[in-house]
Amino acid sequence: MSTLLEVSGVSVSFDGFKAINNLSIQIGEAELRAIIGPNGAGKTTFMDIVTGKTKPDEGYVIWGEKSVSLLDMNESQIAQAGIGRKFQKPTVFEEQTVRENITMALKNPRSPLDLLLNRAAADTEERVRAVSDDIGLTDALDQLSGALSHGQKQWLEIGMLLAQDPRLLLVDEPAAGMSATEREQTTDILVRAAKTRAVVVVEHDMEFVRRLNCKVTVLHQGSVLAEGSLDHVTKNQDVIDVYLGR
Amino acid sequence: MERTFIAKNPSVLWFLLGLSVFTLLVSIFSEAAGSAVISTSFLKTLGKTLCLCLVAIAMDVVWGYCGILSLGHFAFFGIGGYAIGMWLMYARTKDIVVGSLENNILPPTPDEVTTAIGSQIFGVVGSSDFPLIWAFSHSLTLQLLAVVLVPGLLALVFGWLAFRSRVTGVYLSILTQAMTLALSLYLFQNDTGLRGNNGLSGLQNIPGLEAVSQATLSLWFFWASAFALGLGYVFFAWMLAGKFGSVIRAIRDNETRVRFLGYHVETYKLFIFTTTAMIAGIAGALYYPQAGIINPAEIAPIASIYLAVWVAIGGRGRLYGAVIGAVVVSLMSSWFTGGSAPDINLGIYIVKWTDWWLVLLGLTFVAVTLFFPKGIGGLFDLISSRQEKQQ
Questions:
Q1: How far is B48 from chain A (nearest CA, A)?
Q2: Residue B380 is assigned to a structural domain of this protein
Q3: Closest chain A residue to B317 measured between Cα atoms?
C-alpha cells in the first residue's frame, strides 16, 4: 500500500507547552485508521496541522504521490488538494437546507465567477442524491439543516465531506453525543467511505473504535505510544498505564 | 432556469411591479405632466430616495448577506457623485465661458478659454489651474467610467489589504469608518483639487439641456433612478439566488468552515465588497445631479452609519428590507428635520423635532435591534407563516 500522507518529526508548542512532540504517522491510500488517546494527547492538534490551521515549529507533512509539502499551503488549498475535515462539533450551515449544504460541498470549480456563470452543473442533482442516500438524509433534503437532530447534523457533515470527494477524510469524534443506533449507522458510513479513500477517525470511545475494526494509533503527550490492531495496543503495558493511570 | 429564478424569488416580481406602479403614479402627478400634486422639489426628493434605496440594497448585500459590516460604503456613493459632478461642472462652465467670450473683438485662444474655465471653477479656493484629477473632466464617457471604476478600484485595494490580513468583525468596521473619515477630511482641504468644503455645485443644470425645464429634467432623473434601482435589485437577486448566494451566506455564518470546504473566502468577500462599491458609485452619480450639490460633509462617517441603520431597521438579509428601511427612514428624516413635523408642547418644555429626531432614530434603532432583529421586513415572515397555518 502506497503512502498518501506522511507526517514526520513534527513538533509544535503553544506558550511553551509541547502539544505535539516529534510525531510521525503514515496513512496509506484507502486505509481506515483510528487515532485514540487521552485528552490533551494532541489528536486535534494533529488534525489542525494536516489541514493547515496550525503551522508546526518543525517537521514535514508530505502529501500524495507527488510528495508536495502541505506546510506551504493554506486551508482552502489543502482542502482542494483532497483533504476533508469533520470538526468535533457539527458545523453545518443551519440557515440553509440540507440540499444547499451538500451542493456547496460538491467537488466543482470554486471561484466566484465559476459559481456565478456556470450555474448548476447538469449532474448536480444526481450527485446530491448519491450523497444524501449514503448518509440517509434524502427525505430531509429540503429541510433547513438547523432543524436536524444532533446525529443527523453529524451525518450531514460527513456527507458534505464525502461530496468534496477527498482522498483523505479526517473525522474528529464522530460519535460524540449519539445514541447507540446512530453510532452503528455512523460506523457503517465510515467503513463504506474507507473503501475508496483514506479515513482517519479520532475517537476516545473504545467501543466505537472496536466496531471500526481497523489499525489503531495511540497518541500520548504529543507522540505515538503504540500502533497496531486494537487488541494488540490494548495489551501494550504503556497504553494500559496511560489509560488506567489517569 | 428563468422560471425557477422567479419562482425562487417571488419578491423580485412584486418589487418590480410595485416600482413600476409607483413610477407611473409619480409621473402622472408630476409638474412635467401638467399636474400640481407632486412639486418638482418633492419629485427630486423621491428620485433621491430611490438612489438611497439602491445604495441600501448594496449595503444589505455586503452586510446582511455576506456579514461584512462596512461603515464606509457611503464613501463610494460620494465618489460616484464627485465623478459625475466634475463633468457636469466643467461642461457647464465651459458653455458659459465660451458664450461670454464670443462677444470679444479678438477670438479667444484655447489657453484663454481653459484659464477662464479654471478661474470660474477654482476661484473659490484661490486658484485657476486644473488639478491633475480633472484631466478627464471634459469627457462624459470617461467620467461615467470613473463613476464605476474609481469606487471599484478603491474597494478592491482597501478590501484586498483588509481581507488578506483576515481583519473581520468590529475591526473591519472601524477600518472602513476610518477610510470614509480620511477621505472626507482629505476632500475638505482646498488644495485637494475638488474645491474643498465648497464641493461641486450647480449640478442640477445639465449641459446641453438648458432648454429643458427643471420639472422635466427631474422627471427624467426620477425615471433613471427607478430604472437603476430595478436593475440593481434584479442583479443582486440573481447573484444571490444560486450556489454563489449560498456560499456568501455561509461565509456570514461560519467563515472558517467555508474555508475548509475549499472556497477561497477572501476572494468572495473582495468580490462582494467591490461589486457593491461600484453599485454604490452608480447610485451616487444619479443622486447628486438631483441634489444639485456635493461636498465632503456628504461622506462624513455618520452617512455610512445611517446606511447601516436603514438596513437594520428595514431588515437585514432581504433585499426588499433594505428598500423599506431606506424609504421609511430617509423620508421620515426629511419630514422631521425639514420643519414640517409639528412641535410637541409639554408645557414646561417644547419638543422640537429638528433637535429630537436623532434621539428618536437612535431609540428606534436600539428597539429594533433588541426586539425585532429581523426589522420591518420581518413582518412579511409573520404574514406568510400565518397563511401557511391557514392552509
A1: 31
A2: no
A3: A95
The Cα of A45 is separated from the nearest Cα of chain B by a number of Å equal to: 16
Could B250 and A93 be called an inter-chain contact, meaning their C-beta atoms sit closer than 8 Å? Answer: yes
For chain A, the domain total comes to: 1
The answer to whether residue B242 sits within a structural domain is yes
Q: What's the gap in Å between the CA of B247 and the closest CA on chain A? A: 7
* Least confident piece of the model among A173-187, B152-166, B236-250: A173-187
Q: Which residues of A touch B250 (CB under 8 A)?
A: 93, 96, 104
User: What is the residue range of B167's domain?
Assistant: 2-299
B275: pLDDT strictly greater than 80: yes
Residue from B262, B282, B283 nearest A104 by CA: B262
Query: How many domains in chain B?
Result: 1
DSSP B351-390: E-HHHHHHHHHHHHHHHHHHH-TTTTTHHHHHHHHHHHHH
Task: Provide the CATH number for the domain around residue A180.
Answer: 3.40.50.300
Q: Do B259 and A76 touch (CB under 8 A)?
A: yes
Determine, yes or no, domain membership for B322: no
ipTM entry: 0.83
pLDDT at B65: 95
Looking at residue B44, what is its pLDDT? 93
The residue of chain A with its CA nearest to that of B239 is A116
Averaged pLDDT score across all residues of chain B? 90
Largest CA distance in chain A: 60
**Is residue B352 a part of any domain in this protein?**
no
Band (B391; pLDDT cuts 50, 70, 90): low
With contacts defined as CB-CB under 8 Å, which chain A residues touch B248? none
| C-alpha cell read off for B316 | 437585514
